[in-house]
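Tutorial handout. Part one gives the primary structure; part two gives the three-dimensional structure as tokens.
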Amino acid sequence: MHKSFSNLKQGYKLVFLLIYYNSFCAYASGQKPVSDFKVIAFYTAKEDQAHISFVHEANRWFPLMAAMYHFTYDSTNNWDNLNSTFLSTYQVVIFLDTSPENESQRKSFETYMRQGGGWMGFHFSGFALTPSDYPQNWDWYHSEFLGSGSYLSNTWRPTPAILKVMDKNHPVTMLLPEKFKSSANEWYRWTNDLRKNPDIDILLAIDSSSFPLGTGPKLDEIWHSGFYPVVWMNKKYRMIYFNMGHNDIDYEHHTNKELSQTFPTPVQDELIINSLLWLGRK
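Part two.
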């Protein structure tokens, strides 16, 4: 059942109270919480206010899910922790807003994935554009692993879209409705056509009923047609990428007020937690 944002916040408060109560009882009885798997989320949270907002929101939401679904969630902005020793204790790595730029960190992550580690990435973690501050200079990650290549363009302003499930047979999508409305997001377009890559399983794409998508003010920031995948997996790895992860911010009036969030969207939340549980318990 879809709930309003205010009702969901009330639900989050109740969850916090239950977590506190259960933790107190476990502490009093000397019990240690049971964890099915461990997740480590890496983030930078320094550039775009919308990305920073998403990171803060994610670092509130995932611990709630961890308590409800029995996994351990840790987060760090120290990318030097992306090494084989540190990663060896975690079953899933999340990139919340960026990706590693250091060569040794990149090699450690590639080794982790080739050895069967799990990964979940959001929005800007897939971004690459040459020339920019985030150039496409990591072919394994962008061309092979993600398969998307470089960033090509985006919609603006951040707006919700109607998403269509493209693969109803995958465990993370089989119980989702065929179509649902997402939270507001800035949607990306890529240089590579993922439909032509046999290793890529596109789970969700933007439904044509979303068009026109975006409000501008630039005309090329409004999409009127086309195929745009937003969630996909690479069958060679335990991974999933979500294009979602850009909260709406009031830039125009220079207030930086948060206008939307990513997670208070029940079906989208279900998709994300389904994916994480699938990665962690596979």
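Part three, for discussion. The chain is about 30% helix and 20% strand. The first helix runs from residue 5 to 29.
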